[in-house]
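On clarity, I found the account of how folds are encoded harder to follow than it need be. Since the whole study asks how a given chain folds, the encoding of that fold should be made plain. The format is easy to grasp once an entry is in front of the reader. For illustration, here is how one protein appears when written out as sequence plus structure tokens.
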Amino acid sequence: MKTIIANWKMNVGVRESVALARATLLTLRGRKQVPELVICPPFVALCEVHKVVARSGVSLGAQDVFWKDSGAFTGEISGRMLAEFGTTHVLIGHSERRAHLGETDAMVNLKVLYALEVGLIPVVCVGETRAQKEAGDAHKVVRDQLVCACASVRLRSRDRLYVAYEPIWAIGAGEACTLGDALEMHTMIRSVLSKLCSADQLKVLYGGSVDGENAHGFLREREVDGVLVGGASVKINQFKGVVEAACEVVVAQAS
């Protein structure tokens, strides 16, 4: 089953999120075989978006989580709070949080451990900068991020772990990673995590300038379990193209 995760970032308010959620549901109408679809609105819209998707097959994700259930942590949100909105997935370690908010590998690890503890599916974001790529360090950087993020992680049989490979230089740049480089990185990620989890517990997604034009190229590859979509996920015509590509692949691979 292919997975599409829509990260709306800080681009839409509550009313816009509700409208976008309804439009997203329409992209699945009339389709018998569909991908797993997760939408991640801003925190302020979780309650209203939950009402829209509650009786659909679409899952709700959060863009971040703190590593405690409660306490004097101004501005943070816990897994207990997210559970009130039916949230099942959570993005952790997105490069924008690492770059702009000082999120460290150690903090990412705390969040991964906590998410699993409270029953959320962590979507761990990893990726290299352009300078790191040009220096030939991309694999080392991603490997180090994975090892740190998953330190002390012990998956139970019901747990799931998603990893989103997002080359930082591709995010929002309109320049996606080449398919060959993406497949090579996905293979490395699976190898690093092979001792931590079984194949059916792990999903490896690609993110970074995914849109309606290039989504099919990534999704048709069995090594790519899905895509994490940023900017194109708030442009419904672009996102519809991503969903259609995923549906085509799901049907083709099921036959």
Observations:
- Residues 236-254 form the longest helix (19 residues).
